[in-house]
């Protein structure tokens, strides 16, 4: 599931409407950003509350004990928070009482902070009577470059929550508008910083099995949003191609399930193929075997790593560098569709 994020200083109704029109109704926001002035906070909050009513948005709000005063509420006035339209809350530092979480679960979707949750706390929640399957655990995003999570830490932490069958939420960078004040992306994983949202989403979904993937930054590009929604609705991986040849299929095509170390084999019929342009084959090169390949002519391949020059491989196009992270994710589970960029 894809979600987007929006924040008081750059709250844009048009962005929320566009996402809702594309079928994205899950929204994350934070009510504890120090850089928001009181005026920006109030204006952004008003815009968001209007959008919740008119666009049927499901908003998860990041709160701390200081949030209530900013909303004009008494300390820990969760009823007042609910009355303002916030029914899903991510509990930041300061809310680690199992009895409180049990009480909140009666009205709210409770989202825990993955950084603060250990195995003993999960046991305490279960002992208290919390419905574990109704919890969500959300990783942080990391504004400062080099501060995001490592793959190893992320994977190990996720194993704990998956053992408890608790849904996971993680953030990917936005490729439309980076969020203030650092403007360096808001990923959970450091290696995804600077990635386009589409590639980051597919890695979170297909490699890590994250059920809820939210764009942490303030906006996602129209292109990424369309390709993500195509995957969520139709189960098709869009592959962007530069310099596509006419022989490249336009419809979705299956991928062979047998995995090769340096080659993705697209499941197309073998057929006579005249010798055409042949070039070097760096990672991301799409080729079709020509008649010099004998009975293998017509086979369509994508190079996962640099391959030696071959006169039997016609050049059909190149996957641009920003989309090369897609290559390890194409493994036969889903068909692919090539699109010119």
From TrEMBL:
Residues 2-227 form the 6-phospho-N-acetylmuramidase N-terminal domain. Residues 255-338 form the 6-phospho-N-acetylmuramidase C-terminal domain. SUPFAM superfamilies: (Trans)glycosidases, Cyclophilin-like. The lineage of its organism: Bacteria, Bacillati, Bacillota, Bacilli, Lactobacillales. It comes from the Bacteria. Signal peptide: none annotated. This is Outer surface protein. Pfam families: MupG_C, MupG_N.
């Amino acid at each position: 599931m894809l979600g987007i994020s929006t924040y008081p200083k750059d709250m844009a109704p048009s962005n929320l409407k566009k996402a809702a029109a594309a079928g994205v109704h899950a929204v994350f926001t934070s009510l504890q950003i120090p850089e928001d002035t009181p005026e920006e906070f109030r204006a952004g909050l008003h815009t968001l509350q209007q959008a919740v009513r008119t666009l049927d948005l499901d908003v998860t709000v990041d709160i701390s004990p200081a949030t209530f005063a900013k909303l004009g509420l008494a300390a820990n006035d969760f009823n007042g928070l609910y009355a303002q339209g916030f029914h899903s809350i991510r509990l930041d530092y300061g809310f680690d009482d199992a009895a409180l979480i049990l009480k909140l679960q009666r009205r709210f979707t409770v989202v825990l902070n993955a950084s603060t949750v250990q195995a003993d706390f999960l046991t305490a929640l279960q002992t208290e009577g919390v419905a574990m399957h109704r919890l969500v655990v959300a990783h942080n995003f990391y504004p400062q470059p080099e501060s995001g999570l490592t793959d190893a830490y992320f994977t190990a932490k996720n194993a704990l929550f998956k053992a408890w069958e608790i849904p996971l939420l993680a953030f990917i960078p936005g490729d439309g508008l980076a969020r203030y004040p650092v403007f360096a992306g808001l990923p959970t994983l450091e290696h995804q910083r600077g990635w386009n949202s589409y590639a980051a989403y597919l890695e979170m979904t297909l490699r890590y099995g994250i059920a809820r993937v939210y764009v942490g930054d303030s906006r996602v590009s129209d292109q990424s949003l369309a390709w993500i929604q195509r995957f969520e609705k139709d189960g098709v991986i869009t592959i962007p191609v530069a310099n596509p040849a006419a022989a490249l299929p336009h419809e979705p095509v299956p991928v062979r399930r047998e995995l090769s170390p340096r080659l993705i084999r697209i499941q197309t019929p073998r057929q006579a193929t005249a010798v055409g342009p042949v070039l070097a084959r760096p990672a991301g090169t799409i080729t079709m075997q020509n008649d010099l390949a004998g009975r293998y002519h017509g086979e369509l391949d994508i190079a996962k790593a640099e391959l030696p020059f071959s006169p039997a491989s016609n050049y059909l196009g190149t996957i641009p560098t920003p989309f090369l992270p897609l290559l390890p994710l194409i493994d036969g589970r889903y068909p692919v569709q090539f699109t010119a960029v």
